[in-house]
């Protein structure tokens, strides 16, 4: 039996993300969530349902497949306390909640301990931003949701991490935006409302960094005058994936004086970052290991989202480097454990580059993630 109150765990939140390998970190996470007395209600019930002994049987990432694909509807169905280890429930003041935007249906809920939140969303960005020469000390303009989405809760400490004050902010509700059909009067009026507020700030304040989604930035860029665009020293993208052509346009035409850093991820798992510039404008992202693992599995027999070949079988079908497949995320946090989540995206599997290795990154990354074709999940995209 693991007594979390007495055992000095090698807590991830007290280390850098690359200090431990996934193989070293996974047993720690499993021992917490499957502890019979202090563990997580959801996973202890799942262990009983499957008839397994998780602590004995799950030693490597490949062993996670015995748990089967994560049922994302369970994250909508059960109270948040079902997914947090009992040992931590007396310290709720240490948790930061996040909800998804509802892209695939009813929003899902998760939580991060404060140290995990900062390591995942704040320190990870700050580490890569400093390596890439992202501007410090200037004013930020954030155009996106303030909450309950995790991205809105992270932007203020991220700006502070970069030596900036609380960012100028334009709030919008991505859930409402997703209800508005593209190119309708309602969607155009909503976008106009957002842009008018943003342009008021840009015209009166000295903005150095823009942080928003690619669709909003595209609309904003065409309305900014050239002097204001040339004054932008940093651009950070999130919320919606970006394509190569759009990325090239932002970098070469709209904001050529800026350092551009794109992000890929979500509220449930965290943030993968573009750690170096690509001469071909490919978008290559790496996670902050060992707490976040991304794998690419074959779609030869269809995607898991379409109910084809059983997901537990496909979890072992990792594609070769340079090949495209479906994205699978694993979140290995003390506070929250989400293995084997089949995402709505496809991407190319990539190995750590020399730059990634220099930065201490030992995990696979992904190149050019985009939505899977013909999936039946009712994906709703738009401004976010």
Describe the structure.
The chain has 384 residues and is an alpha/beta fold. The protein contains 13 helices and 13 strands. It has a six-stranded mixed sheet with strand order 4-3-5-6-7-8, with helices on both faces. The chain has a five-stranded antiparallel sheet with strand order 9-13-12-11-10. Strands 1-2 form a two-stranded antiparallel sheet. α6 links the parallel β3 and β4 (168-170). The longest helix has 20 residues, at 185-204. The protein is globular and about 65 Å long.
Helix/strand layout:
Blueprint: H1 22-33, H2 41-50, H3 54-57, H4 74-77, E1 95-99, E2 109-113, H5 114-132, E3 139-143, H6 150-161, E4 168-170, H7 174-179, H8 185-204, E5 207-212, H9 214-221, H10 226-230, E6 234-237, H11 244-254, E7 259-266, E8 270-273, E9 284-285, E10 292-297, H12 311-314, E11 324-332, E12 337-350, H13 354-358, E13 365-371
Parallel strand pairs: 3-4, 3-5, 5-6, 6-7
Antiparallel strand pairs: 1-2, 7-8, 9-13, 10-11, 11-12, 12-13
């Amino acid at each position: 039996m693991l007594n979390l109150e007495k055992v000095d765990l090698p807590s991830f939140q007290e280390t850098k993300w690359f200090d431990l390998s996934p193989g070293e970190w996974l047993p720690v996470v499993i021992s917490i969530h499957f502890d019979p007395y202090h563990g997580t209600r959801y996973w202890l019930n799942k262990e009983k349902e499957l008839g397994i002994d998780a602590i004995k049987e799950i030693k490597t990432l490949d062993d996670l497949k015995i748990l089967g694909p994560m049922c994302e509807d369970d994250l909508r169905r059960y109270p948040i306390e079902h997914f947090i280890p009992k040992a931590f429930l007396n310290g709720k003041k240490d948790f930061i909640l996040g909800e998804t935007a509802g892209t695939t249906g009813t929003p899902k809920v998760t939580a991060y301990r404060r140290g995990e939140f900062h390591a995942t969303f704040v320190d990870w960005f700050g580490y890569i931003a400093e390596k890439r020469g992202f501007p410090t000390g200037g004013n930020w303009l954030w155009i996106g949701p303030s909450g309950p989405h995790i991205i809105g809760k992270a932007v203020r400490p991220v700006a502070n991490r970069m030596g900036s004050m609380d960012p100028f902010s334009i709030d919008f509700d991505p859930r409402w935006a997703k209800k508005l059909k593209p190119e309708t009067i309602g969607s155009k009026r909503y976008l106009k409302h957002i842009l008018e507020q943003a342009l008021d700030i840009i015209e009166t304040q000295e903005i150095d960094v823009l942080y928003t989604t690619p669709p909003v930035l595209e609309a904003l860029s065409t309305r900014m005058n050239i002097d204001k665009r040339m004054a932008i020293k940093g651009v950070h993208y999130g919320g919606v994936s970006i394509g190569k052509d759009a990325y090239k346009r932002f970098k070469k035409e709209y904001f050529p004086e800026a350092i551009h850093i794109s992000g890929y991820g979500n509220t449930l798992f965290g943030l993968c970052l573009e750690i170096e510039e690509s001469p071909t404008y490919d978008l290559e992202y790496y996670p902050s290991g060992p707490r976040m693992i991304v794998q690419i599995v074959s779609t030869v027999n269809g995607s898991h989202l379409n109910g084809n070949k059983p997901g537990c079988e496909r979890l072992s079908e990792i594609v070769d480097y340079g090949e495209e497949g479906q994205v699978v995320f694993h979140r290995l946090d003390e506070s929250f454990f989400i293995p084997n989540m089949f995402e709505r995206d496809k991407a190319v599997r990539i190995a750590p580059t020399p730059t990634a290795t220099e930065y201490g990154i030992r995990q696979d990354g992904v190149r050019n993630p985009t939505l899977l074709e013909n999936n039946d999940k009712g994906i709703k995209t738009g401004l976010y």
